[in-house]
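Summary for the steering committee. One of the milestones for this cycle was to obtain a three-dimensional model of the protein with thymidine-5'-diphosphate bound, which we needed before selecting residues for the alanine scan. The sequence and ligand used are listed below.
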Amino acid sequence: MAKSKTIYICQNCGTQSPKWVGRCTACNEWNTFVEEIVSTQPKSTQLRVSVAKPVLFSEISASEAMRIDLKNDELNRVLGGGLVQGSIVLVGGEPGIGKSTLMLQISLLLENNILYISGEESLQQIKLRAERISTKQNKNTLVLNETSLESIIQHIKEIKPEIVIIDSIQTVQTEMIESSPGSVSQVRECTSQIMKLAKESNTSIFIVGHINKDGNLAGPKVMEHMVDTVLQFEGDNNYNYRILRTLKNRFGSTSELGIFEMQNNGLREVSNPSELMLSDNNSSVSGTAVAATIEGLRPLLIEIQALVSHSAYGNPQRSATGYDLRRLSMLLAVLEKIGGLKLSIKDVFLNVVGGIKINDPAIDLAVVCSIVSSTLNLPIDRQTCVAGEVGLTGEIRPVNKIEQRIIEAEKLGFTRIFVSSQNKKSLNLKKVNINVVFVSKITEILQLLFK
Ligand code: TYD
Ligand code: MG
């Protein structure tokens, strides 16, 4: 019988503590510690004789890893050109975003031996969904309804599939730990066992993971460093399109993203994203500008809306949602002084679409453009976006990761992007097809946009 003891684990970052503490010392979150029972296996059962030997660099053969074509361009792209054999891919996203749909679609489409393990849906539910998605159904796909890690591992060892899909890691439970499924210690232990299996048997494994309310993968830190690739599914309830981003990839770049559209019969790949941007926003309206921002490590194009109107009460109002109000006042002063606009007698309302709070200074330029667009009642064309910080003298300052912003803008179907001329020297423009316009003053960009 395994001896068990209890420890406290931060549900946000996985830090352990022998005592309950109110605030995590690692991630500074409050009230995240939960008591968990951890059964400690005798160390002797885990001891292994290591057979690995140090080798010289020159003796390592660097053959390109074998990749499986997933017959899905967007998914292949975010994985860096296909699924690497023996790799573990974590697919994260909010509930209902389409993770199971995507995984099922691959299982139906491919000819490879696939084992689809679902702990969330019954076999009948999966069958119904499969019938909705596709008429063609892979003859080699096996479906398993199981949540016990031990029997999952046994099945994988017996069946020896090429690809395993585990939907989701939060439902899988190992007997070695007594805490409930979905807890940090269960997720960590199950992931590490699955990883060991993948490396030993050279099986590629997709793990589906849910995202908690803060937008992080549940048990985030404990899983992300173990797996080879982390993909994140994002989307907006008001739109049908879904974005699949690479957050981490040991076998490719992390600046890739895949775009899908959720339809009645599953997810459709969107190879030309501009169709989405254009169909959603056919008419150009004044007062909006699109900013190419970076959120954390991820580039993101965000629409900024401004409404500038006559102040009815003599005391002009300023309001900003998702943007710093003091920074807005500063930009209004710059526009008044350098742009020559009479804004001190106007009400100004600013809104970052989607209710996201942005700290990236690169959205300054979009704020300026949307305010001027609303003041002059002249729309900015929908295929233009901007990225730049605005200084007190009206100069447009350079921003970081400019290449990533430009690539994202191009990917999302924009044809023109305005950036600071000081970004010019750090930029290698051979790779991009989008028209990059360099500007150094706000007067310059306003002339180009509203001539
Ligand atoms: P699902 O893949 O179950 O999400 P997740 O596994 O990430 O929780 O997606 C479910 C949503 O997708 C649900 O709201 C219905 C919608 N959907 C479609 O619109 N069309 C389809 O063909 C399918 C299968 C699902
Ligand atoms: Mg699901």
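Key point for the committee: Residues 93, 95-101, 129, 132-133, 262, 264-266 surround thymidine-5'-diphosphate (ligand 1) (CB under 6 Å).
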